[in-house]
UniProtKB/TrEMBL annotation:
Record protein name field: Amino acid ABC transporter substrate-binding protein
InterPro entries (alphabetical): Solute-binding_3/MltF_N
Membrane-traversing stretches: 25-48
Keyword hit for Zinc: no
Residue ranges annotated for the Solute-binding protein family 3/N-terminal domain, each copy included: 60-280
Keywords in alphabetical order: Membrane, Signal, Transmembrane, Transmembrane helix
Lineage, broadest ranks: Bacteria, Pseudomonadati, Pseudomonadota, Alphaproteobacteria, Hyphomicrobiales
UniProt keyword annotation of Magnesium present: no
Record Pfam families: SBP_bac_3
Length: 287
């Protein structure tokens, strides 16, 4: 399995502020910002936002993505990653082409002139304080539990014994939450290292993104791990994800909402995820 050298991005790409972390959000998607870490919403970089009219005038919408982060995105384009495929589909619905701004650090994210970021965690409190506009959600995700193949019975993090070695990403929300519960956590810098350790028996479980675990199983059918969507029972480890738009006007937001709705209805999003071994899970309505 090729190594992505980064953490998962569910969500957006810069370190999250302390107050956002208390609200249940960890780090953003790339570069030490992991989905299980949990990632996602960051303060918008100081780039000039573009309106729908400006995007249509240019004939291009720009996406920020990591160049080496399968299954999320890859500059090699073989495969491109589900974020790139979804962004291309969005661009087609808008009647424009897609440009990708490849970024590998928070500084680059802040300065890149991109219009959208995929896998932005929906957190209304944080987004109300920033210039990020979010689309209607298109997926429900969170911190999943990965176990060795053949492990039966366990269905949640709360069922893990304190003697179990649980892999977590350094600085992640999962590390904080599970550590506070007294679980024996083992930190890793990258999800690919963590899931390899699980497959090899170095650790007993892993707090990981469903996307990373699903892609590992797709690429390694003989070493597949058991994936449990444990976040469904853990509100602080679960979230909806959406398209993040930097300073977008209302018209762009409406256009992207309509495109997301069509892509959900016709199975486009489901099919893109499936190509990467990921199960599409419909967004959960806020209670």
């Amino acid at each position: 399995m090729s190594r992505s050298r980064r953490s998962s991005p569910t969500f957006a790409p810069c370190p999250i502020r302390p107050e956002a972390r208390r609200r249940g959000i960890g780090y953003g998607a790339a570069l030490g910002v992991a989905l299980f870490a949990v990632a996602a919403v960051c303060i918008v970089p100081p780039a000039v936002p573009r309106s729908l009219a400006a995007i249509e005038g240019r004939g291009v919408i720009s996406l920020c993505a990591h160049p080496n982060a399968l299954p999320f995105a890859s500059r090699k384009d073989s495969p491109p990653g589900f974020q790139i495929e979804m962004a291309r589909a969005l661009a087609r619905h808008l009647g424009v082409s897609l440009d990708v701004a490849w970024v590998v650090s928070p500084v680059q994210y802040r300065s890149a002139e991109c219009d959208i970021v995929l896998d932005t965690i929906v957190n209304r409190d944080v987004q109300a304080e920033s210039r990020i506009r979010i689309s209607r959600p298109y997926h429900h995700s969170g911190v999943a539990l990965a176990l060795p193949a053949g492990t039966d019975g366990l269905a949640s993090f709360r069922e893990l014994g304190r003697d179990r070695r649980v892999g977590v990403q350094v600085g992640s929300l999962a590390q904080m939450v599970l550590g506070q519960r007294g679980l024996r956590t083992t930190p890793y810098g990258f999800e690919d290292e963590m899931i390899e350790a699980l497959a090899e028996g170095t650790i007993d479980a892993a707090a990981i993104s469903p996307a990373s675990a699903g892609y590992f199983n797709l690429k390694n059918p003989g070493r597949a791990v058991r994936l449990v969507h444990a976040y469904e029972q853990e509100p602080e480890l679960a979230w909806n994800i959406a398209v993040g738009m930097r300073g977008a006007d209302a018209l762009l937001g409406q256009k992207i909402d309509a495109a997301v709705q069509r892509m959900l209805a016709d199975g486009t999003i489901r099919d893109i995820y499936a190509r990467y071994g990921i199960e599409h899970r419909p967004p959960v309505t806020a209670r």
